[in-house]
Amino acid sequence: MENVISKKDLLRETGISYGQLYRWKRQNLIPEDWFIRRSSYTGQETYFPRDRILERIKTIKHLKGRYSLDELARILSPEFTGITYPVNRVISKEIMDEQTAELFRAKINKEVCSFWEVCVIYALGLLRSKYFLTEADLERICEKLLDWSSKLQSGSYKIYVVKCDGQNTVVIAAKEPTLFLDKALQVMGSYDLEEIGATVKQKLNENRI
To answer: Given phi > 0 = left and psi -120 to 50 = alpha, else beta, which region is 94?
Structure first.
């Protein structure tokens, strides 16, 4: 059973107000079904799925300076995460890097991908150009995508480019706790998968696939 957090503890832990919480609910930033009402000795209390609500509020606070609340509501909508996307159409809409997507198709022999696969592929395209990942690097990483994507059901991860013995590789790890690495490994850069997801959703909104 999923852990829950009371409304009182949620407000204290996140530093948001009662008014913010219910305003975000009205603006569809927080789903109605996350407000779980239970009887208590005081009458009735409201609880939330702990991990999901804490992650959602963290994301809202992080992104609300860059997007309007209406834009955020579209970005955070779950409508994109439960469906698959044809690779060819994704490439045509410039959602992912074409070279990376071709490797993705060749290595795992798929013509469709999940939302979070699109996000990982999109991030790999960014990493390839920024951190000079080679074709061999991408081929090796793409071979692991099937294993990774089956475990990526949310954006609670970061993608790191790590240098080891002069070569770059990619690590996907939960955002919390902090990633600790041997001193022989150097983190060259990283992307927050939640932020990548927001960018991809914006693109999907602009070019409905």
So the answer is: left
Strands of 4-6's sheet in order across = 4-6, 43-49, 36-40
Report residue 36 as tokens. Answer: 């779980």
Strands, sheet with 167-174, edge to edge from the N-terminal-most edge strand: 167-174, 157-164, 186-192
Residue pLDDT, tens place only, 130-168? 766 777 777 777 777 667 766 666 667 888 888 877 777
Q: What gap in Å lies between CA 100 and CA 57, rounded to an integer?
A: 32
Sign of CA dihedral 102, 103, 106, 108: negative
Contact 186, 166 (CB under 8 A): no
Of 189, 199, 193, 153, the C-alpha closest to 173 is: 193
Cα 133-135-141 angle, rounded to 5 deg: 75
